[in-house]
User: Fold this.
Amino acid sequence: MVGSPVDGSVAIDECLSIRDGHLWVEGCDAVELAQRFGTPIHVISEDHLRRNVRRTAAAFRNAWPEGDVLLLPSIKANFTLALRVVLTDEGTGCDTFGPGELDAALRTGVPPQTISVNGSVKPADLIARAVEAGCRITLDSAREVELVRDAARRSGRRAVVRFRVRPDYDGLDTLTEFAETDVSIREAATAYKPGIPTEELVTIGPAALVAEELDVAGVMAHLGRHHHSVDVWRSMAASFADTIGTLSAAWGGWAPREIDVGGGFASPRDPTGRTTRRGMQRPADELSPPIEAYAEAVTTSLREGLRHHGVPTEGTRLEAEPGRALLADAGIHLATVRNVKAQTRPIARRWVELDTTEMFLPDGLIEHNRWTAVVASRADRPADQEADVVGMSCGFDVIVSGAALPAVEPGDIMAILDTGAYQDAASSNFNALTRPATVLVHGDDAEVVKRAETIDDVFRRDIVPGRLGNGSRGDA
Assistant:
């Protein structure tokens, strides 16, 4: 808890508070939201998303006076179109991967020149559409250079491109928080497929620089969420600067006018990796460094590294691709307690069963998240028991293991915090479960911005050949 406002409520953060025993999202009672819209539901605070965008943009602008700063929030973090409209309204660009994400960016008004069309194995038709629309293309292979040149010739437009690079990350021997096993960040990052190997890029770069069809604007690298420490980001930026220095030396002093440092900055409560052996050693209430610390670490190290290599920074635009840093703590997931059961033997165990599933909160599985569970309908009650908060699928479906909870009953509303990034985007229909709606809160108002799926939606792609009949068996 961070304080007690004058109205008697207790603030959890700038978005969440406890009032009259209930959890509130901005000016909305979470229990009333659950009753009004049904559960399970994803809830996003528009106001907090806007606060996060403005704070992140200010942090990088203050830390990079050399030139302009542009945020390119990764649309993969949450491709709910209403949220992308909010981000567009806040003046951000967009990082996209694949035709679906590019379509989402264009249909929500993102200026094409602020879109980065990223990703490996880009098909020719995606590249053609991006060039025609005037988007920037972040090249991931030598083959893509030729595909972009062909598309530019056909369209009669000069294509703006950037190279995605693969820094060596020398010295980044800190163990990644992303894996259960002991793997260094350098090892994990160099196993990640995107980017053009430096030795290949040194060779193909000169031809791209002089190609009439191409405007080579800059470079991009993305380490991703491997660790919450700012020291990791200092090392990342230093290695990135070394790679830029290598290219500049090989290409006769070339200097990028755009440098995109990617994303992966931790959200404040940062549930990532906390169920691994190492992650469980972090204090449960330990917050990640503020975004200002990440911005300072990245820009200082990048600046020093570039100057060491004689690469000018004045007038260079810095770009960053925050996803979870903007969206994670702007969202909660609401579910209803359907059953509580316990046993004393052979092993004492207690379960609180919800009408949701880990399939709707997949980073518990993918990124070893340790979610924070709050009983929204009893938010002021002290915890007096431990229980596994579990879902409704046929798997183990453990959403939070050994959660400290007050006594709960069927009908209580449970909130899972920090779910605004990646959870809806990566959820699945395991057990033919229908994925939940998303509700957008704005002050004391709330509205559905993505409807819940229906059973018909789940099976809409299926085609049963007529020769098989409809599966019914009449009397012989």
Notes: Residues 1-6 have pLDDT under 50 and may be disordered. DSSP finds 14 helices and 21 strands in the chain. Residues 230-250 form the longest helix (21 residues). The two ends are 69 Å apart (CA to CA).
